[in-house]
Amino acid sequence: MGKELLYYLVFPGFIFLAFVGGLFSWADRKISAWVQFRKGPPLLQPFYDFFKLLLVKETILPSRGSKLTFLLAPVFGLAGALLSGIMILLPAFGLRQGFSGDVIVIFYMLTIPSLTYIIGALAAGNPLASVGASREVKLVISYELTFLLAIAAIISKSGMVTGLHQIIAVQQSQGAFAGSFSGILLVAVFVLCIQAKLGFVPFDMAEAETEITHGCFIEYSGAAYSLIKLTKYMMLFILPAFLCAMLLGGFRFNGIGFLWAFLKLIGVLLLITLIRNTNPRIRIDQAMRFFLIWMNLLVIVAIILDYFNF
Predict the structure, then answer these.
(1) Which residues, at least 6 apart from 15, have a Cβ–Cβ distance to it below 8 Å?
(2) How far, in Å, CA of 100 to CA of 151, rounded?
(3) Rounded distance between C-alpha atoms, residue 46 and residue 52, angstroms
(4) Which partner from 34, 59, 153, 228 sits 20 to 30 angstroms from 103, CA to CA?
């Protein structure tokens, strides 16, 4: 029982995910600043932002809508990120083997934060929040199908095993899936799905600060918004870790393997941040067309290439 509590609360659970997620958020902001020829924030700025919202800023509740649902939505979003992170990192770090089919459960867990953003926005009773929720619904419908197809393609490449530990073991014995043509296509699809899940440009139309002033989160403030911030910090670490586990051979922590694991995570983060800073926001109809047609087609091509061992 004590070991399980340690996993959930300390490592690789809540404290670890929050700390590393905050560092990843700082790295994302620092890289963005360098791209834009700015200095960027200090190392602890994400933590300052979180604790300021949690302890200093007032939580203002909307006058219309469901206040209870509005407040509970960020809590469930954080819980979804935490559980998915633990389920990914335990087998990825070699602490537990997980269970058969845990990849499918992780897929659903990773969907929870986006769904809670929608629920919270609809509970706010704000027209701009409703617009943001509408866009988020359409975006989720689009990229989640692509994400599921990409996971199915990876399961096929691994010999139809559905456990994350087994998928990592296959790669560590036979080589990372990203070393094949089909694997390269799946990495590209995975990265763009991560971009959409994080709400980063070019898929940030659900927040769109210049159009609908943070959309889904327009009514959030204080402690409630701090939970949303923390969820986003965690997801910024969890999703690149999931990509590394599924397609880049997982992690080894013996000898130089620790450095290689760190470089893989930072490389994925760098790619995500550069895409964010070098592309304009697209419209929601363009995003839907992009995922439902082109990204799904790319996954199908990857599955065909894998069938012919490419």
Answers:
(1) 9
(2) 14
(3) 10
(4) 228
Distance of CA 99 to the CA centre of its chain: 22
- Determine the residue type at 183: G
- Per-residue pLDDT tens digits for 70-93: 999 999 999 999 999 999 999 999
pLDDT band at residue 1 using 50, 70 and 90 as cut-offs: low
Reduced to 3 states (helix: H, G, I; strand: E, B; else coil), residue 218 is coil
DSSP codes, 211-235:
HHTTGGGTT--HHHHHHHHHHHHHH
- Dihedral of CA 261/164/202/290: which sign? positive
Token pair, residue 52, equals 């300021």
Residue 244 near residue 265 (C-beta atoms within 8 A): yes
Using CA atoms, how far apart are residues 62 and 44, in angstroms rounded to an integer? Answer: 31
Instruction: Please state whether the predicted TM-score (pTM) of the whole model is above 0.70.
Output: yes
Residues 175, 177: Cα–Cα separation, whole Å: 6
Lookup: tokens for 147: 């994400």
Tokens for 284, please give them. Answer: 């929601």
CA distance 224 to 70: 9
Residue 251 DSSP one-character state: -
CB contact at 8 A, 75 and 119? no
Are the C-beta atoms of 182 and 303 separated by less than 8 Å? yes
Q: Quick one: which H or E segment has residue 106? A: helix 102-124
- Amino acid, res. 36: Q
C-alpha torsion angle, residues 257, 259, 265, 268 (rounded to 10)? -100
Query: How many whole angstroms from its chain centre is CA 68?
Result: 26
Pick the closest to residue 10 from 85, 72, 76 (CA basis): 85
pLDDT at residue 253 greater than cutoff 90: no
Domain ranges of the chain: 2-307
Nearest to 195 by CA among 297, 264, 276: 276
